[in-house]
Specification:
It is built from 6 helices and 5 strands, in the order H-H-H-E-H-H-E-E-E-E-H. By secondary structure, it is an alpha+beta fold.
C-alpha cells in the first residue's frame, strides 16, 4: 500500500510541476530540482501524457454530483461571514438538505465537512426548512449554516467537541492527538 501511494504521488508530482510551471515558475523549478537534481530545467518539460485507462467515469460522475452541492454551501457560509456570524468556514457546521436521493447517495463514504471545508457537516434527504439558505438557480439544495460545537483544535483549527479529550494533548482533537502521538513516537525511535 505504501509503495502504491508513493507511486501515485510521484506521478501526480510529475504532472503538477509541469502543469503549474507557467504560473509558479520559480516554485515549480525548485520543487522539480529538489527531487530531480540532475533532471534538467522543469520549464523545459512537457506535461506527461496521462493514460486514458486512468479515467474512472463512474467516479467522475459521482464527484460531479457532489460538486453540485458545494456552491449552495459556500453561498450560505459567505452570507454568514458577511453578517459577521462566523469568521471562517471552520466555525460552521452546516446541515445540508438534498432533495435528490441520487445526489445524496454520491456522498456515501465521504465526509461532508471535508468537502465543504467546515468543522462539521450533516447531510439530510429532503427539501429542508423554509428558512434555510437556497442558492438562486440551484434547486434541490438547502443549507442551514449552524455554528460548530466544541473548541478549536490548535492543529487543524476545526471546532470539534472532542478537543481536549486526550490528556496528553489538551489543545488537540482526538484525530490530531493520534497523529501527533504517532509523530512523537517516530521521533522517539529515531533518537
Amino acid at each position: 500500500m505504501r509503495r502504491a501511494c508513493r507511486t501515485v504521488l510521484n506521478l501526480v508530482f510529475e504532472r503538477l510541476t509541469a502543469w503549474l510551471a507557467p504560473i509558479l515558475c520559480f516554485t515549480m523549478e525548485e520543487a522539480w530540482g529538489t527531487l530531480h537534481p540532475d533532471g534538467g530545467s522543469n520549464c523545459a518539460r512537457v506535461i506527461p501524457h496521462t493514460p486514458d485507462s486512468w479515467k474512472n467515469e463512474a467516479e467522475a460522475q459521482r464527484w460531479a454530483k457532489v460538486l453540485k452541492v458545494l456552491p449552495a454551501v459556500t453561498g450560505a457560509l459567505e452570507v454568514e461571514r458577511r453578517e459577521k456570524r462566523i469568521g471562517s468556514a471552520l466555525e460552521a457546521a452546516p446541515v445540508v438538505w438534498i432533495a435528490d436521493a441520487e445526489i445524496l447517495a454520491a456522498f456515501e463514504g465521504l465526509d461532508g465537512a471535508d468537502i465543504f471545508r467546515t468543522s462539521q457537516a450533516e447531510l439530510k434527504l429532503g427539501d429542508g426548512p423554509e428558512a434555510a439558505f437556497r442558492l438562486e438557480g440551484q434547486a434541490g439544495v438547502a443549507v442551514e449554516p449552524n455554528l460548530a460545537s466544541g473548541r478549536k483544535c490548535a492543529r487543524s483549527w476545526k471546532v470539534l467537541p472532542d478537543v481536549g479529550s486526550d490528556p496528553r494533548y489538551p489543545e488537540l482533537s482526538l484525530r490530531d492527538a493520534d497523529a501527533v502521538a504517532w509523530w512523537d513516537a517516530q521521533r522517539g525511535q529515531a533518537a
